[in-house]
Specification:
alpha+beta; 7-stranded mixed β-sheet; globular; 213 residues; 3-stranded antiparallel β-sheet
Length: 213
């Protein structure tokens, strides 16, 4: 009985620690660049998404999925002006000994094959000049912020169904002000009760603004 109680307390402690970690919002400095008609970001926010166990799982033959939701919102407001959904998945082909990735991003869908596990991880976690908003939606000289909610292997059926519906619209991750995901900023970022996943990251950028040309 005593051993059972100790084991239960350990499990509860781990779950509590994970819940505290998932509720925490990390502040991170990101790089914002105007590129054509779009505002893009570069960030290393996903560096903490994979621990050693999650990294080993990449070669298990089961699919690993990363879902990234990004909102751009004006200062002192929880009403976003832009939303982007990014979905990245990888599965190890045991016969060819290669990692097959599918990347659904605002620029469209791309399939990539990597031979090295480290390169597959880099594909999953790199954010380099990712389009996050049309410049026309981000008012010049108005202070804005970026909120990023990242899930590794989300298990919520509702979340997965919503991701599939969004991506089936044929615009990749989209650069949108509408849709079901646009209205979910409060429910998945502000509200601490979030869908279960292997790991969840919440990140805010530094305040930024578009200078007048």
């Amino acid at each position: 009985m005593r051993a059972w109680l100790v084991a239960l307390l350990v499990v509860l402690a781990v779950r509590t620690a994970r819940a505290d970690e998932e509720d925490r919002v990390e502040q991170q400095t990101m790089r914002f660049i105007e590129k054509g008609d779009y505002l893009t970001i570069s960030s290393n926010a996903l560096a903490k998404l994979f621990d050693s166990k999650a990294y080993r799982a990449l070669s298990s033959g089961f699919t690993s999925t990363v879902v990234i939701r990004i909102w751009i919102y004006p200062k002192d407001s929880a009403k976003p002006v832009a939303f982007v959904l990014v979905r990245r998945s990888v599965v190890y082909d045991v016969w060819d000994e290669a990692f097959d990735l599918q990347l659904d991003e605002p620029t469209g869908r791309k399939r990539v094959r990597e031979k090295r596990q480290a390169d597959a991880l880099k594909r999953l976690t790199t954010i380099d000049q990712l389009p996050v908003a049309l410049l026309s939606t981000v008012t010049v000289q108005q202070i804005h912020g970026l909120a990023m909610h990242v899930e590794l292997n989300p298990v919520s059926k509702e979340t997965l169904a919503e991701v599939r519906r969004w991506l089936s619209q044929g615009t990749g991750g989209g650069l949108d002000r509408g849709g079901a995901f646009f209205g979910s900023f409060v429910s998945v970022f502000v509200n601490p009760k979030i869908p279960a996943a292997d790991r969840v990251l919440k990140v805010r950028s530094q305040p930024f603004y578009r200078p007048r040309p």
